[in-house]
Amino acid sequence: MPSNYLTAIAFALCLLLLAAAAATATATAPTAYEVIQSYDFPVGILPKGITHYDLDTSSGKFNAYWNGSCSFSLEGSYQLKYKSKISGNIYKGKLTNLSGVSVKVLFLWLNIVEVRRNGDNLEFSVGIASAEFSLDNFLVCPQCGCGLNCNNLVENWKKGNLRSTPLLSSV
Predict the structure, then answer these.
(1) Stretch 48-55: mean pLDDT, rounded?
(2) By its UniProt entry, which InterPro entries does this protein fall under (predicted)?
């Protein structure tokens, strides 16, 4: 075989090996939902549809991305809105410096700035006030546009598992 063919074959093999290594690295990277669980949070605090994320494990700084904004209602009483990019810092049981997530309270949209795990509850803070909810409310990821009422998602989940009795407190 002429040396040009050998060079071409060697080059093609190198490309195939690089592609295989990249595919393996991508396939083994945890999803955003797996990462959030590793920090002691349930997957349902993030809606479905995250396209990608980045995380600096040394500082806890993260960003999560969707294809556009995401909004939905939960149990008819809370409206949530996620911008196409949310960011903050994540630590075991605590999300701080959040930006890009807001909740409608009465007629005002308030930014959720912090989420803390408190035993079997999650406490959501909007700065001047906070509300606490059972972890059971976050076992399933809501979907943009329809929340948990998509394709009878709630029907397929145990009835009575959703609890919407927040404990409101000022900070």
Answers:
(1) 93
(2) At5g01610-like, DUF538
One-letter amino acid at 18 equals L
- Mean local confidence (pLDDT), 45-70: 93
Residues facing 105 on adjacent strands:
108
At 113, give phi and psi (nearest 5°): -105, -15
Q: Which pLDDT band, with edges at 50, 70 and 90, does 152 fall under?
A: low
What is the residue whose two structure tokens read 């960003």? Answer: 63
Q: Is the pTM of this model over 0.85?
A: no
Give the span between the Cα atoms of 137 and 155, in whole angstroms: 14
* Mean pLDDT of the region 134-153: 80
- Residue positions counted in the chain: 171
CATH architecture, range 32-170:
Roll (2.30)
Over residues 150-154, the mean pLDDT reads: 60
Angle at alpha carbon of residue 142, lines to 137 and 147, rounded to 5°? 100
Residue extents of the structural domains in the chain:
1-30, 32-170
Q: CA quadruple 156, 158, 159, 163: dihedral positive or negative?
A: negative
